[in-house]
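INFO batch 0412 | record 1 of 1 | parsing
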Amino acid sequence: MSVDLTDKRVLVVGLGRSGIAAAQLCAARGARVTVTDKRPAAELGASLAALPPSVTRELGGHRRETFLGAELIVLSPGVPEIPELVAARAAGVAVTGELELASRFVSAPVVAITGTNGKSTTTTLIGEMLRATGRPTFVGGNLGEPLAEAVGTPAAQPDGFCVVEASSFQLETVETFRPRVAVLLNITPDHLDRYDGMAGYAAAKARIFAAQTAADFAVVNADDDLTVRAAAPARSRQLAFSLARPLGEGAWLGGSDLVIQLPGQPAEHYPTDLPWLAGQRHNQANALAALLSARLAGAAPEAACAGLRAFRPLAHRMELVAEAAGVAYYDDSKGTNVGAVVAALDGFARPVVLIAGGRDKGGDYAPLVDVMARVGRGAVLIGEAADKMERAFRGRLPVARAATLEAAVTAAQRLAEAGDAVVLSPACSSFDMFRDYAHRADVFRAAVAEIAAKAAGKAKAS
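INFO prediction complete | emitting tokens
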């Protein structure tokens, strides 16, 4: 259901990638667009060049009168309830988000994925499987490309597919967003600095089902009680996936196979003997969810299997960076909450020296301490959360502190023994010290490269 934006006064708040895409979409549909960001032009850099010339810019702060004068406000994900926005809501100004707005111009079947952990991997996997059908396929959302960038492309037409990673921030503003297949992978503590406890966070995640009907599908993790409860009110047909037990229909781990059983159809078996799946239980869960979702969306078994085999692990998700002096160094900078790190480390094949810390998100570090007590050699802590994390680790594991990530890598090298792994998996956001998780990963990888080069020099000299 598209919306007529002709001559409408639209204010786009926040000029990240989704904000730029929303402004472009609204301008292309004839709206009178103003963009606003608290950052000055110098900080926004080259992204401003992507704005159409007709767009009015209000940078370096927000103007209350612009918010009150808008007919529609489009929020970028994560924009808090700033006073100007509160005033606009009170005055009756319509407020939406880029995901909701863009979805109104998409006629393709949408597969949407949310959850605390595994969203990007599952989204990318589903994209691979649907691309293998030969139909135009868009893969994006919170993963990278905003859905607004798909509008007008073949993938957004009825013969295409749109696969969208949806964050809780994006789902806060959805109203008519209706995925043909909506996936809720898991719910573990995250963003509790924004929400009113786990109930508020779970409610935001569950909005992925809000506009679905009985003609749609909900794919839900049967092994996660909070996820099951959050999805219970959905009007769509629910199918579950599980690593723990066989199900009458849905998806489960059956011996050495991934088993998919659609309603009224025979069971299908898919392989687990792939390097990124073998022994990786969290990725096996992601693969089950992806296979089930792709099949429900219309991929044939052959296409689903081809996508499964074609997939390669994403950047900054337990990537092996180097091995030096018998120690393996892994980049898991995308591990930005406790649940993600616990899933990645549980059953790790080597003793782990963990580099963790950053900006605390309000969660409990006890599950991380428990898994490190089983697999850990020690931990090196950085950033604003280091004090809180050190208190949690006290008495359970050797802990060191470092002022910089480079110093943390050096400290981890000293703690590690041959046969160990040094893992950057912070369990926190990066914004106290870095632009984002990718910047944090770049600094880590550069420090590891220096260690590897020195180790290679010593080996050559001997």
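INFO post-check: Residues 319-461 form a domain with the Protein-Tyrosine Phosphatase; Chain A fold (CATH 3.90.190.20).
INFO record closed
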